[in-house]
Amino acid sequence: MKYRICKKTVLDSNYPGIKFDQDGISNLFWDFFNVVKPNWHPDEEGFRFLQKKIEDIKKEGKGNDFDCILGLSGGIDSSYMLHKLVSDFGLRPLVFHVDGGWNSEVAVNNIHKLVDKLNLDLFTEVINWKEMQDFQLAWFKSGLPNIDIPQDHAFVSVLYKFAEKYKIKTIINGGNIATESIAMPYKYYYWGTDMAHIRDIIDKFSNIQMNTYPFSSVFYHKLFLRYFKNIRVFKPLNYLPFSIDSATETLERIYGWKPYPQKHFESRFTKFYEGYWLPTRFNFDVRRCQFSSLILSNQMTRDEALKRLKESPYSEEDIRNDLNFISNKLGIELDELKNYHEMPKYYYWDYKNNHNVLSFIEKSLSILKMGRRGGAF
Asked: What is the DSSP string of 213-273?
């Protein structure tokens, strides 16, 4: 395809499957207004729904230590959501954090500032580093884009494990339309809980037994736990006014919370993956999705987005430092890491996968208005 860029957003022809109409407007722009926006209610109607939902959660959790569960990464979405739900609505969440070995110092400090100020207990699950290290290396060796799956999979698995263990029926999720209305494409962000895919990568490239890593199949937590254990996911930020600038100001003022240069940069590995690996190896800049979401929610102008896209999220010094940090932490030479960057590219279809089945389930849930891939609703 000849290079094109959407006239309304900053999505371009590097987004797999994108289409443009005769006016140069992308199908993803129209998808927002036709499919996504009707599920977004940061208004009085949404607030009334949120109040009713929270009352139901409180009743369901009455007599228990916790009435809901919330994973806290230290990022803007989960941090602001925790603040609102505890301070404004009086929920009693089990707050947990998964330490996959890649936490930034800023993220750790942000997490503790929040839980200390709100007088909450923090449950931390530490992943066996030898297993995480080997799992992470297996993904580099596979040549696949989404080298962040080992970390993401652990977060999701532990979330559902805690919910089931403490008999909590409501999982509070920070996914939101205001900042995430444009879903990341399968080509670069394949399902992180497709166990057929994961097992194939481990069988081909892993060197140790994964005895303690918390695996969880998408079928287990999306179908079994949801429909047989009645464990549900709720995304309250879709029923509240939510903007990055306002949320950041609130968190800084009340908790001394520190912002990050880019969304998801609370993890040092995710920063490396989204800020360096994807754009330089696969020519895909996640900021085009992130900024387009902000354009659609009127938090950023298109001109501002285009200007920021000209700036690298990484300085040359940071790139050098992080390449050394990542290689040292993975126990490999810098040259080996650079070789992975230059090796042939592979995608999910080059390995075993359940894509056809998962896509069918996703489309069915979308038709039934029970959510869609991407986490926004």
From this structure: S----HHIIIIIHHHTS--EEE-GGGGS---HHHHHHHHHHHH-----SSTTTTBHHHHHI
